[in-house]
Amino acid sequence: MNIMVIGGGGREHAVVKSLKKSKRCEKIWCLPGNGGIAADCACVPIQATDLDGVVAFAKEHAPDFAVVTPDDPLCMGLVDRLEAIGVPCFGPRANAAIIEGSKVFSKELMQKYGIPTAKSRAFTSPEAALAYLKTTTYPAVVKADGLALGKGVRIVRDSAEAETAVREMMVEKVFGESGARVLIEEFLEGPEVSVLAFTDGNTIVPMVSSMDHKRAWDGDEGPNTGGMGTVAPNPYYTKEIAERCMREIFLPTVAAMHAEGRTFRGCLYFGLMLTGEGPKVIEYNCRFGDPETQVVLPLLESDLLEIMLAVRAGTLRAADVKFSQKSACCVVLASRGYPKSYKMGYEISLPVTGEEIYIAGAKREGERLLTAGGRVLGAVATAEDLATAVKNAYALAGRIGFENAYMRSDIGARALRAKPRA
Ligand code: AMP
Ligand code: GLY
């Protein structure tokens, strides 16, 4: 089969590498891909959000299947557009991608169907939001309704901080229309777990759990980033908790979306908080996580393409979805200064090929690979146990060089301190 993969980060590199292992995969185009992904498949310089460009490419090259992974094109309706010209896709249609595209929508869905989540109120006017802030308890969480490059969530310690957040989102509109509505919600505490799940709208099959490290600096300090590293499985996510999540969160979510006429097909991402009252949903994403995918897919023993085709066909129940019992760790190498300002254009020296390196922000110039983003790449290792995976991922990261490189030194440390899985 000839497959089109839409996107161009470390996540897409992991998807491409996994798809390539399938016997049925003949050719992959990645739009736009990046300088590192170009070592694994053809990269075509069409942006993921250039829906007309992607559709025109698909008309010309007639791919057998398309995999759409980033949030923006999913919410903009790329899957609808491609399916309309006869290209079957892995990924939700826009009416289901809204589960990530609008936090007000997903909150109302959870409230309507009794899915456990933080208590929350939605506001469409800054005056009402500001008045409410005087009465609520702190810390609290202020969230922009729409997509905001992962930056639309503010944890505020008092009403002054909360007011600033509301004014920035609703009045100054730093996230544009994404901040036209905001949610003000209860602050939840507990370990966070990411669970990605395949679903065909009826059956849901969770993948191995993982733990993201969103803050820029060691000890979970510093600004939020797109993710500085991940481990899988997440040791806090016990078998008992997994069963409870299936009953109280995963199955009800899939059923709720179907009942709303918004059947979700693709990868549904559950951002969970394991609170004293049980697991609660912090957020849904309508796609694979980045950099969760870089630790989850290397542990997948089954054929990713077959699973994706089954999701599209509605036959996931019969599909073979097996994960290894091993552990994996991804250490992200970023440009120093990320997520604020940083310099790019430095040459990257990679160890010999065959290593698990997923390139996120790099461009090719002749034979050279140059840094071209905040997060540059992820160094991944899998091993029998988490301690070894962490050690080996750091050993691999240490063999990769570019000027201005920055990484956290404690990816996996919290997971290693956690109680073992039941
Ligand atoms: P999101 O952009 O929705 O992934 O949120 C970013 C981060 O904010 C999450 O990973 C959590 O660490 C944190 N967060 C979001 N909602 C809450 C909440 N209700 N209570 C505590 N932390 C939260
Ligand atoms: N790693 C979090 C996300 O992909 O949204």
Tell me about the biggest sheet? 6 strands, antiparallel
The CATH architecture classification of the largest domain is 2-Layer Sandwich
CATH fold description of the largest domain: D-amino Acid Aminotransferase, Chain A, domain 1
CATH class type of the largest domain: Alpha Beta
Task: Report, as a whole number of angstroms, the end-to-end distance.
Answer: 41 Å
CATH superfamily of the largest domain: ATP-grasp fold, B domain
The percent range for strand residues is: 25-35%
Q: Radius of gyration over alpha carbons?
A: 21 Å
Write the layout of secondary structure elements.
Layout: E1 2-7, H1 10-20, E2 27-32, E3 42-43, H2 51-61, E4 65-68, H3 71-76, H4 78-84, E5 89-90, H5 94-101, H6 103-113, E6 120-123, H7 126-133, E7 140-144, E8 153-156, H8 159-171, E9 182-186, E10 192-199, E11 204-206, E12 211-212, E13 215-217, E14 221-224, E15 229-232, H9 239-259, E16 266-275, E17 278-285, H10 293-296, H11 304-313, E18 327-335, E19 357-359, E20 362-365, E21 368-371, E22 375-383, H12 386-398, E23 405-406, H13 413-417
Helix pairs in contact: 7-8
Bound molecules: adenosine monophosphate (AMP) and glycine.
Residues 150, 212, 227, 285, 289-290, 292 line the site of glycine (GLY).
